Amino acid sequence: MDHIKLLEELGTVEPPGDAVIARAVALLEAEIGFASGETSPAAEPTRDLRSSWRRQPGPWTHRLMIIAVAAAILVVFFVPLPHLSFFKRLVSPAKISPATRPSIGTGTAPGTIFVANAGKLTGGTGNGSITAYRPGATGNAPPELVITAGVDGPNDIAFDSSGDLWVANYSNNTVTEFSKAELAKASPVPTVTISVVAPSSDAFSPSGDLWVGSGDTVIEFTNAQLKTSGSPKPVVTLGYRECSIAFDSSGDLWQGSGDIFAYEWTNAQLAESGSPAPRVTISSTSLAEPCRPTFDSAGDMWAANYTGNTVVEFTKAQLAESGSPRPRVTITPKPSASEPEGLSNPGGVAFDRTGDLWVPNAGAEAVAELTKTQLAKSGFPTPARIIAGPDTGLNWPWFIAIEPG
Question: Which residues contact residue 239 at a Cβ distance below 8 angstroms, ignoring those fewer than 6 apart?
Fold first, then answer.
């Protein structure tokens, strides 16, 4: 009983006083059978039991044993061991700091990184999703927001001038809008649903009209047609098969093809339906299934090569006329633990507000950031940040859009 009482006392005294420690040592000496050079009568049975399997220890061995056991008690006292219930240690469960807890349902913010996860469309599982990450997200960061309602094989995403998100759902033949108000909810649902055959990309013109890649055509819906759900008739249909589309600052439409070409149609050519010849055709072996081109603040065009696993830049001057220019910059990011192959099937890239480029890597289920400095010259840079891991919700990340504002 003395031993149990002592242990309970050691478990509740902070820290143990000299008297408690002295009692511990005295009891241990008595238990071992050695106290100030004499044998404790109460300890004789224990000594006899020990001597049955080993030679009786000497005095110095006894002293070392006393010191070791006393030290063990003190260590256990100061190092909480939840499974030793007799020490009556109460270990509080780990808590997530409010600063690191995802603010789901509180609304996203300008600069938030939205990712279209194509899911089963291109080899993943499930119907895909839209996931959103804070501007400072990195590593195995959980998404701030997950959108699944009305989403099926999302192939592209784009924000309009009001901050509403539009999703081209290839698998269910719709383009869906999620208003800014819906994006502030924990489980957003579509605000508007437009029926479109096999939508593979979407982009807004400077005037606010929505252009969609649909099968072998590129079609236009006016801003007024986007107010309610339905099956509106496109006001313009261009008879060219597209891979992905984007507008430059002049309102000209650029298309990345499924091979080594990029095309431009001027704003004037977009005024009526037909099959107008592109004003500019860029043919380059540095292009390999370029996904949606995007433009930086200088008007230079950037594109990720889906099968070439590179990111390339053509200057505004190089885009002025048809030809086969060599990219001013070719980026091949270095392999890393999150992206062992460097870039792996990169999709539609996007610039954030600081001028850094975000690249989705479908094959690696990761999203990488290349800084403005890294984009200044060709090379093999290590991405500044990589979002990847089982908690990210990434599932064949295909296209990226940055929330404006």
Answer: 216, 217, 273, 274, 275
